Amino acid sequence: MSSQPPSKPKVDPLPPRPERMPLPAVPPLPEVDKSPDIASVQYSTHRTKLSTFRTQMSEHRTDLSEFRTDLSSHRTGLSEYRTDLSAYRTSLSTDRTDMSKRRTGMSFQRTRMSADRTLMSVIRTALSLIGFGFTIYQAFQKLHESGTIQHAAAPRNFGVALVALGILSLLVGIAHHVQFMLELRHTRDEMIHENLIHGQSRFPASFTLLVALALLLLGLGAVVSMVFNVAVFG
Q1: Which of 24, 154, 222, 225 is a Cys-bridge partner for 232, taking CB atoms 3.0 to 4.6 Å apart?
Q2: pLDDT tens column, 5-48
Q3: Is the dihedral of CA 71, 73, 79, 85 positive or negative?
Q4: Domains of the chain: which residue ranges?
């Protein structure tokens, strides 16, 4: 089962950006007096103004650095949350892959049952042909034996033809079913070996095929009974 989605991280709100500092004018160079003492004082005063200017710029850079540090911490928190989301999506993808494998495995079972239903349709058709053919043969045979009709060869041949047609359709249906099921099993085994589907569910033998084989034996017995006049069924 998939894990719970990650909870929203407790990320600090975005820090306020420092106000843009109005750039002060650089102190101009003073007009230096010719007297050395006065010139020294003027230069000292100018250096003091320059130091004050540099201090203001340094304080503003410090504020900007702290702001960038806070933004980095905020991005780190968001990155960790994105990492948790990626792990959660990966777990969901794994679950979806597992469900896809199971659905594909169940589709093989549905295909197998569809093949059984197709063979059942062939069985119904063959049973109708064999039953009608045998009934027509027996009915006209009894009428001929009782003397009610003189010539019963054509109806009896028609009954034999119906039974033979039923046996032929059943043979074709059984051969097609066996070939299809062998290919289906081979494809399923290959996909299980490649770990594309789960193979826990059984893939049993077709009970419908056993019924079709039993009906084929009955049809052959009916043909032998009709052609060679042998009491196969007593």
Answers
A1: 225
A2: 666 656 556 666 666 666 666 666 666 666 777 777 777 887 88
A3: negative
A4: 100-227
